[in-house]
Design a protein that fits this description.
Heat Shock Protein 90; Methyltransferase, Cobalt-precorrin-4 Transmethylase, Domain 2; 16 helices; 489 residues; 17% strand; alpha+beta; 6-stranded mixed beta sheet; single chain
Length: 489
């Protein structure tokens, strides 16, 4: 790098703001300065200056002796991984013997491990240097070697082939065969192992991976509590009051259908809701909902067990909250310019594609934008908050208020066919639970369990299934609320 002039120092100091520059009065603050340098290496890069007043930004300079140079060189050796950094010493005009010390820390290469200074990592939040949280550091380490630290390819501790739901698996195989993505010979597979092979989610010894359980598990939440999705319909434009909420503890194929059913229930205006390809009149076209849901499920991160994806419907918008981030160094517009795919969970994304759910690689974001434009809706918005990506789709017209009578949340919709099919698909146990809810609006889980002499956990499973089929809803809080029928028999 060429040597800076004092005018260039002045320009950088006075033009660059927040994260791109740190000023220290003297090398008496050498350690805190190097901590900021480490933060630059882990954030967006930036300049570190000694001999500049941190508040007034006056260029004062400082005395520089051989010992000063040696101390700086010694501290620069404390960065790991090793990086070639050099200090520049720029004389200050009119202040004899005084120099500004400048060190440039480049922006990170995101497929490298995070940098540490003296054994500790740092990062920048606006103009503040902070210790990097352990969770963020671990995430950066995993990003530096995704194959080595792949969650989806890790053997699922305690899981066996008996934990795989063959009904979901066979359905995915049949859809994949119909779309030409899985060989027709897969239809004749008789064992669970043979059925899983097209999806490449087995260990080398035919063991069950985390990805296999997340995709096809009977009860994946038994193995990882965050294999679920939260669905909510709020009244108004904020989260002060909800109309309906549902936590779906199921595999990813089932979660996808639950999201679509929940959005059908709460964003439906008119049309034939059983046909995805029909000219449905919804606040948001079903194809947009499906693409957004697939992006949510395929690209979520799994290492943070406290993070759960959610879909939140308000009067004026729907928000898809996804644990994770865009691929390092990219942003939404990059995928609009040149559609491509960089899935965090390659095997899970591939399985959803082979299983007939995804329509094409790298088309998710462009399709969402195009479909919203075709429907005359506002352009989708992406926001980034710590550990989450939020996709907001704003409605062209606000949702209609809830109407009394009939099916709550539906407006002018003929849903008799849908209702009859849903009721016919119930198991005997589910039908018993539905009948109790229908005849006792407001009944809670414990009351149903007592009536049927079953455990609350068993009843909760049946209630979740009924909610996924949009036959019942839960009102009010978890402690004082109860279940109500959405349809009449």
């Amino acid at each position: 790098m060429r040597t800076l002039t004092i005018k260039e120092v002045e320009r950088i100091v006075h033009d660059d703001e927040n994260r791109e520059m740190e000023a220290k009065k003297t090398t008496g603050e050498l350690v805190s300065g190097m901590q900021s340098g480490c933060a630059f290496l882990n954030t967006d890069g930036g300049w570190l200056f000694f001999g500049v007043h941190p508040t007034t930004l006056a260029i004062l300079g400082q005395d520089v002796a051989d010992r000063t140079r040696q101390e700086i060189a010694w501290e620069l050796r404390k960065f790991a991984p090793a990086i070639d950094l050099a200090a520049q010493y720029i004389p200050v005009p009119g202040r004899e013997g005084k120099m500004v010390i400048a060190i440039y820390f480049p922006a990170p290469i995101y497929d490298r491990t995070p940098y540490t200074y003296d054994g500790k990592p740092y990062f920048r939040v606006e103009n503040t240097t902070m210790p990097m949280p352990r969770e963020m550091f671990d995430e950066r380490i995993r990003l530096s070697n995704p194959k080595k630290f792949s969650w989806e390819l890790t053997a699922c501790e305690g899981a066996t082939l008996r934990d795989i739901d063959n009904k979901t698996l066979v359905s995915a195989i049949n859809k994949g065969i119909n779309k030409g993505r899985i060989p027709a010979s897969a239809a004749s597979a008789r064992s669970t192992v043979e059925r899983l092979r097209p999806f490449n989610v087995l260990t080398g010894k035919d063991g069950v991976t985390n990805g296999a359980v997340a995709l096809f598990g009977k009860e994946p939440v038994r193995f990882f509590s965050h294999c679920k999705i939260k669905l909510a319909r709020f009244e108004g434009k904020n989260m002060d009051k909800f109309r309906d909420q549902l936590v779906v503890e199921a595999n990813l194929f089932q979660q996808l259908e639950a999201i679509v059913d929940f959005c059908r229930k709460h964003m439906f205006l008119s049309g034939d809701q059983d046909d995805f390809d029909s000219k449905n009149e919804l606040t948001v076209p079903l194809k947009v909902v499906r693409e957004a849901a697939l992006n949510l499920l395929a690209h979520r991160t799994w290492w943070g067990e406290a993070r759960v994806p959610s879909v939140n419907i308000f009067d004026d918008r729907v928000e898809f909250m996804n644990p994770g981030a865009f691929p390092p160094g990219t942003e939404p517009k990059d995928f609009l310019k040149r559609p491509h795919s960089e899935p965090v969970n390659e095997k899970i994304a591939t399985a959803l594609f082979k299983g007939g759910e995804m329509e094409g690689w790298g088309r998710g974001i462009p399709d969402i934008y195009d479909l919203c434009k075709e429907a005359g809706m506002p352009e989708p918005e992406f926001d980034f908050v710590p550990n989450f990506v939020c996709l907001t789709i704003r409605f062209k017209s606000p949702l209609m208020p809830y109407m009394s009578g009939g099916v709550n949340g539906y407006v002018n919709g003929d849903v008799n066919g849908y209702v009859n099919d849903a009721l016919k698909s119930l198991t005997l146990s589910q039908r018993k639970v539905y009948d109790i809810v229908h005849n006792n609006p407001g009944v809670n889980t414990k009351q149903i369990a007592d009536m049927l002499d079953k455990s609350p956990r068993t009843i909760e499973k049946h209630l979740t299934a009924l909610r996924m089929k949009v036959l019942i809803e839960h009102k009010d809080s978890d402690k004082t609320g109860g279940y109500y029928p959405l349809v009449t028999k």
